[in-house]
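hey so i finally got around to running both of the ones u sent me last week. sorry it took forever, my laptop kept dying halfway thru and i had to restart like 3 times lol. anyway pasting them below in the order u listed, first the sequence line then the structure token line for each. didnt double check formatting much so if smth looks off just lmk and ill redo it

first one:
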Amino acid sequence: MNKVVNINLNGLVFSIDETAYETLKSYIEGLKQHFQGTEGAAEIIADIEARIAELLQAKISDTYMVIQLLDVNEIISLMGDPREIGGEEESSTTKQNKQHYSASGVKQLRRDANHKTLGGVCSGLANYFGIDTIIPRMLFLVAFFAFGTGLLAYFIMWILIPEATTTESLEQPANIKRLFRNSDDKKVGGVCSGAAEYFGIDPVWIRLAFLIAFFVFGTGFLAYIILWIAIPEAKTSAEKLQMKGAAIDVSNIEKMVRDTLGKSGDQFKTGAANVSQSVGQAGSALTQMLRTLFKMMGKLIGAFLLLLAVIFIGVIVFFWNYSFAEILAKLDITDYYSYFQWGLGLFAFSIAALIMLTGIKIMFHTRLKIKWVALLLIVCMVVGISLLLNFGVMYKNGVSEKEVIKSPTLTAVCPDTVYIKTADTIDEDVTEEIELNNQSKRNSFKMSYTKDLIKVFHNTHLTLKPSKNDSLQLSVFKSARGGSEKQARENAQQIIFKHELVGNTLTLDKGVVLAANTPFKFQQVFAKLKVPVGTILIVDKAIMKMINTHYEEDFDIGETFKMTSKGLKCLDCMDTQEEDTELDIDWDNENGDMNIRIGSDDRATSSQTEIIKEGNNKMKVQ
């Protein structure tokens, strides 16, 4: 059993084994003695301690909290022994090239939990490809804001890529370049010179590219500001060495500090040093101001996402409990309704929850461990999409065929005047009505729901045309869909449509009547009434809706008509023209055509409408 002590190194607190502490203390004391009396000794020791603290921090994880002697010896071998400085640089550099490989020597992709900001995906990708972590992070941001796919791609990779274990080191090699802003060669913020160091080119080309982007595309300034905020500045000697891709050991830190001190001494001899310092201070102040501004914007974005998620959930609950689910359930639209209900519910809930979790992390800067929550939500999303697709396929197969059956024709002697009205028996039992219309009143849908669970779909069409004899003839065609011709025929046979002629009054049902628990399979009724020429027809407004599906009650089209050889002639329509108005509607069930003729004897216009026919799912208007 070993004793554990707590130490403070470069402002960071570590729990360290006592033996390891003595070894580390002896190493740092040896460094101090080695550099005692040399120029910049304090800066060299401070940078070395900062680098050691950074390496120790990389060792710490949720399951590995105490620094051991093995860790300290590894860090000392990376940094180099002061007594061996100058002769082991190449060996030290070689030792630092540590990446995670499997037992077979194949490089493996792992999430880096030690350097993570969210889930360790970007830092793991950076380690795998040997690049700076900021590059994959910026690529994910671009994918999110430009294409909208960054967030989903990140969560998917979070689930698919395993996290590195405590025995797997994902620390990037010390001599791999990192992207920093170069404050030693900056004109404004050091972005261009830092990028030039990373890509190994002259800073002039980077600056020229930003100028072209600014004057030609108008995006250069905004891109520069964003990079200024996103890319950290190389302040310590270790960071400056990483910017150049050099090994971070005692020897290189010493050289970097002395070079920096030499440059500072030369700059003090010129008046330009004061100007550069002032510009640097102004740039630092601007950077701090912009960072604060973007933090505020981040909180606003997080708050917006939270509000969006709450509104989204509220809308889902409202429509699900109030109208949407109620309408679908009462329609009994399909035997597979539960697939649609659960599929849409899971998909919508998972989207809302992911938006809410993202908003919480952005707004409160929390380090929530949502791996399993995100995994569960994505699984729910996939299951929801699968259920919706399954619903669509099964429902399409369930209405793929259409059948039309004809009821026996009603034939009677036609009186001089015929009253056509709708039955009132259904209205007495109606407990609720649902009506869906668009702005043009076309493709409207109306359903009445009775206390005995009987559904009445107002999906009935009536056509009137001249008869070739003195008889009144009513033909009724019932149409429905199904998964096969037999099922479609059975669905059509379940339609209840009552009609009777008593004296001179013809009474029709208002719509397609279906018994309880009968699913909606696009049931329709087409009634065709042939009336002798010269007969007076008095119809109510409900019948006018059957004749003209686009008829509106506030439009007075009249109720008294006379059948002529050319069609209906309105006798009490509004006198909008000098001529009498005629309405001729002729629907032919054999070929599915409807001829509509509106106008006077001399100024009539006609149009032909192709109605949906068996095996044809398109509607064409000419």
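and the second one:
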Amino acid sequence: MRDWVRYLSEEEVLDTENPFVQLLGGVVWLIRNGSIYINESLATECDKTQETGSFSKFVNVISARTAVGHDREGQVVLFHADGQTEQRGINLWEMAEFLLEQGVVNAINLDGGGSATFVLNGTLASYPSDHCQENMWRCPRRVSTVVCVREPRCQPPNCTGQCWQGKDCMELDCGLSHCSGHGLCTETGCRCKAGWTGSNCSEACTNGSFGANCAQKCHCQNGAACDPVYGTCTCPPGFTGDVCAQECPLGWHGPGCRSPCSCEHQCPCDPRTGNCSLSLSPAVTSLLSQVKQCFPSPKTTLRAGELSFFTGTTWLILTLTLVFLLLLSTAVNVALLCSSRVERNQRHLDGDYAYHPLQEMNGELTAEEEQQLGATHHPVKDRSLRLPIKVSPKDSCLRTPAAAGGIPRPRAWTRPSGHCASPVLLGDGHPQ
């Protein structure tokens, strides 16, 4: 079928010398040689071949659709989509996209899907859009065109059955290996898949070739393996890139350059084995020499780091020590100040005092007392004096009659020794 999907002229159709046995026509060539061909069909075909309306509407309206086509292997593909014009279904653009996804390389749109009835193995497989006499049922439309597709049988007189087997000559036979599972058995023998060759497709592509019939050349380098189907390179350990042309970057090794080196001082390793004892190429040695000049030696860097750390630590310790001493000095001064105040207050309240209670006296002084005190004082009558006065022996004393004139008081406050410092107020309100 793949050789006979094309436009025919009127002369070709009416040719009597080489007439067609069967012809199947449609409206709009959907797919041509693997590409959508709708726009070209709109410009080429006659719009009178359809009755939906304008040609553009016929293409874009949603409706039931039917198409026939074939894939790259020459197998016939029938397509049917249920629907009803302007209500449900698909347009021709959507149908063409779907057929492309299924691997169809040539396809034409048949009459509208509403005119078709799809029967598969004797069973109705479509949902007709026309109503029956009873509207609750749908009935197939009566049309005269029938497209029948079936497997080939050995009925024509020129069919020898070569390479076919089975009761209906439906099964191809390409020998015991049956193309080794890497090819397709055809009437002319095995047609190998990409990456395989030989009469029975048992040999993979070699000598750096790949693809269909091993016709394409591989470009892998450094002993990389070439995939016989797609030509992709599988790099050996130590190499990377699309064609395995680059060595692993410094510090990496192994398949795919995914393993880091573990050498001392961050030295590079062998990109293939990861061995740290290696003799580098002159180019790598020169590069490492140039890089080394840009960095200080590890010992110098370490000493500088230690010195910086030591200096910072020393200053921190000194600062903390001074702060601690300052706080300690402040605490000691505050404690001494509080202790001094407490001692002074305690000395005033609980000092070493001598208590001498005054006796009660009533009436006038005797003649002997008046003679001792002199006639300058007036007698005290009906006085009762009891003054519980505390006098510190260190700070105060009571004046005696010998020191100052006044009314004598027996057993008054006295200080064992020393001199009077301040007057003392007695019971009569006179300072003594």
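quick thing i noticed on the 2nd:
The two ends are 153 Å apart (CA to CA).
anyway thats it, ttyl
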